[in-house]
Each structure stands twice: as C-alpha cells, then as structure tokens.
Amino acid sequence: MKKQLIMEKALELFAKQGFEATSVQQITEHCGISKGAFYLSFKSKDELILALIDYFMNQMTSDIDYVVRNTNMEELLYKFYFTIFQTSYQHSDFARLLMKEQSHTFNNDLLVKMHYYDRLLDHTILYMVDQLYGKAVTETKYDLVYCIKGFIHTYSHLIFFYHVPLNLELLSQSLVEKTNLLAQHTTIPFISEELIQTFKSPVNEEITKEQILEIVEQKMEEMEESVEKESLLLLKEQLVEPTFRPVIIKGLIENIRNHPHCKWISFLLRRFYNF
C-alpha cells in the first residue's frame, strides 16, 4: 500500500506547508522511503497532486451516485444534498488548499479532470431529476439540473470560505424546498438538449470494459487478502466471461463499495451494468 502511504503523508505536509513549499525529498523523508520508491509510484509531485484530486473526487462522485440510485423517492433529494455537503465538509481542508494555491495546480490536466467529474455529476443529477419529476419537467429539466448545481456551488462557499459550524440537515431541507418550487413552477426553458450537446467535452467520457479490467487488476495488486479482494476477482472473471445473474453481480459490487480503495471501481461497475 505504498502509493496510499505516500498520498496520506504528502497530504499532511501539503496541509502544513502548501504545495510549492513541499519537496519530493521532504515527502520521502516523511514517509521513510527512498526517492526511487516515490518515483515508482508517481512520476512527479504534480502527478501526486492530481492523484489526490482523483481520490477525493472519486469518493464524492461514487457516494453521490450511490445515494441517488439507492434511495427511495421521498428521501432522495434530501439525501442527495446532505451527502454532497457532508462530503464537501469532510474534504474542505484539501479544497481550500487547492483554491489557495491554484496558480500552481491550475493547468490543463486539472481543467480536463475537473470537467470530467463535472460531467459525471451532470449525469447523476439528470438521472435524479428524471426519477423525481418525470414528464412534468420534460421541457425544463436541463435548467433544473443547472439550478441544482448552482445551489451546490453557492452554498458550498459557506463550507470552503467560512469556518463556522453549519446545520447540514437544515441546509438540505431548505434546498429540497427550493428545488421542488423550481420544478413545479418553472415554465420558460432556456437550456435545451441541443445546447447541452454543444457543451460536451470532445474527450470520450465512457470508460470501456478493458479500462475497467485494468483498474480492477491494479486494485487487486494493492489489496491484501479479504472479502473485497475475492469479490473483485469474481467481478473480473465476470467481465471476461459473463455467467452470473444480475443480482449476484450487484451483491459483489455491494461487497466492495465501502472499501476505501474500491469506491471508484464500484461506481464504474454500477455504470457499466446500469445498476
């Protein structure tokens, strides 16, 4: 688990000193490893920073998507908002660090990465809107998606920029009310499906079965023997040669969902199997 150790120890140093002031030498000393061991895991400090962003965004994306696809309609919107703000609060220190030192990290790789996660969030919110409101918002659903994202962005500022305790339950309830009012009373659409198509990234956003297999194999190498690792092995065999019924596949994915190294692969597998 050397890669995970490097990420955890580097994050401790970044939080104290910032990205710029922290060297690879300091990271390796803090980890108790050689520079050679570091470069076996990461090509550079920038790649390490992008890996940390990936880690946090993977956690958030997979948690939100799971809530949206596995919550009853009565609680869905509330749990969606609560999960987003709770996860944002948990990772707020790292988010503030990124914003503080964005001159260092604000490069094309980061822009592409953040756009990718933004598109994934779009898909999840659109699925939720369809489930909640159906045909009643056929003409305005894309506007509603953007309004929901606007709520998230605006109220997240309270978490990222102000060090005050927030009642996340009340915040979520308030946004449920606002969202329902918009869904019920908005009549003039602005964002059409055609306009949405012009926003799409030229980068292919759909991950292939071969890419999923590669990630599964990588995760299996990183993990010790466990129920989760055995489940990953069975899921890998299923990808290569399908034999299991959907209920078994869903159960195997559920086995790995809460493992910290498997949240992202569980998200990808749920999308692949349309669960």
Automatic annotation (TrEMBL):
Residues 23-42 bind DNA. This is TetR family transcriptional regulator. The lineage of its organism: Bacteria, Bacillati, Bacillota, Bacilli, Bacillales. It comes from Neobacillus bataviensis. It comes from the Bacteria. Keywords: DNA-binding, Repressor. Pfam families: TetR_N. Residues 1-60 form the HTH tetR-type domain. Gene3D superfamilies: Tetracycline Repressor, domain 2 (1.10.357.10). GO terms for molecular function: DNA binding. PANTHER family: ACREF/ENVCD OPERON REPRESSOR-RELATED, ACREF_ENVCD OPERON REPRESSOR-RELATED. InterPro entries: Homeodomain-like_sf, HTH-type_Tx_Regulator, HTH_TetR. Transmembrane segments: none annotated.
